[in-house]
Design a protein that fits this description.
two-stranded antiparallel sheet, alpha/beta, 12 strands, globular, 12% strand
């Protein structure tokens, strides 16, 4: 069954409403935030409860390092922003790639020891110095440096049994606006973007497991933001760049997702547009707080849209989602802390 929805929960444990939503056949996963964190014991219990509902639910988090790291206490390593690895590259490129692998391994191993399956990392955006929302989350300005450091970080993720997600395709680094609150517009040509920002996606097409497109409009290519554009997702990402992994929409509650073809749309309309453009999964974040009417509205709306033929179930999409689930057992936290590979990796983190 194609289960494209990734939703969230309000608190530290599952409510009856959360359980009902997570049982819905169109829900394929859950994204956790800092509000869902108290300590490791609570997080581990929460992840265990989620898996009791359905083993195939993908438990996700935004956990990159630097300012985007949801869990920071009770033993979690404070990972550096990716710019620190780019700065290390300038001094010693090979040491920097090794440090990136160590960061990826520690990031993934700690999350998996608590039951989290997947993190939306690495950021492949280039650091043009334009975007405050990207900033030090980027490895570097040079797409070749970004590619090699990201590939090294992804190797570390994979050593710990975690898949990767490159974001934000084709590139969020050359716009000043924050797509959480407005719709950025990048007026460069397709040739310029493919030569620069999008280049890592082609170079990583054999190793990158998933991609998250940007809520950015590139009017020389399409009037729609990239995550709702069949030109970007189908013709360019799948076709020209030969990417075969999973595609997530960015958060549908962001301002950059709510204006399509010049008009404000509902969450359901945004989800249908993203799925029809080529996304395998769509995220709705931070709407479960309170009664969470928006979450139920999207689940019901997507169900109705399916019955009316406005989008179709896609078995290949669900296989791509399932491929992101870890295939190997995770280390328990106490065993991880004394494992030689983990202790060695800690020593290499800048």
């Amino acid at each position: 069954m194609h289960a494209p929805l990734i939703i969230d929960i309000a608190g530290l444990s599952l409510s009856k409403t959360d359980r009902r939503r997570l049982k819905h056949p169109l829900v394929g996963g859950i994204i956790l935030f800092a509000r869902n964190w108290q300590d490791r014991a609570q997080l581990t219990a929460l992840c265990c409860d989620i898996k009791k509902i359905r083993k195939d639910l993908l438990i996700c988090v935004d956990h990159e390092g630097g300012r985007v790291q949801r869990f920071r206490t009770d033993g979690f390593t404070h990972l550096p922003p990716m710019r620190a690895l780019g700065e290390q590259w300038l001094q010693d490129p090979l040491a920097a790639t090794n440090a990136a692998t160590a960061c990826g391994y520690v990031l993934a191993a700690e999350l998996r020891a608590c039951g989290v399956d997947f993190s939306f990392t690495p950021v492949l955006d280039l650091d043009f110095g334009e975007s405050s929302v990207i900033g030090d989350r980027s490895f570097a300005r040079d797409p070749r440096v970004v590619t090699l450091l990201a590939k090294s970080l992804m190797h570390g993720l994979r050593l710990a049994g975690m898949a990767s997600c490159g974001k934000h395709f084709p590139g969020h680094g050359n716009v000043a606006a924050d797509s959480h609150t407005e719709i950025p517009v990048d007026r460069r040509s397709l040739k310029a973007i493919l030569t620069d920002d999008a280049a890592p996606y082609g170079w990583l097409n054999t190793t990158l497991d998933s991609v998250m497109p940007a809520h950015v409009i590139y009017p020389k290519v399409d009037t729609r933001p990239a995550g709702f554009s069949a030109a970007w997702l189908g013709d360019i990402l799948r076709g020209r760049l030969r990417f075969g992994g999973a595609v997530f929409s960015d958060d549908l509650s962001m301002a950059g997702a709510r204006l399509i073809d010049g008009r404000e749309v509902s969450y359901t309309e945004a989800a249908v547009a993203a799925l029809n453009a080529g996304c395998d999964m769509v995220l709705l974040c931070n709407q479960s707080i309170g009664k969470g009417e928006a979450v139920d509205e999207l689940i019901d709306g997507l169900s109705e849209a399916l019955l009316k033929g406005r989008w179709q179930l896609d078995e290949a999409s669900d296989l791509r989602r399932l491929a992101l689930l870890p295939a190997t057992p995770a280390s328990e936290w106490d065993a991880l802390m004394v494992s030689p590979a983990y202790m060695h990796a800690l020593d290499l983190i800048p």
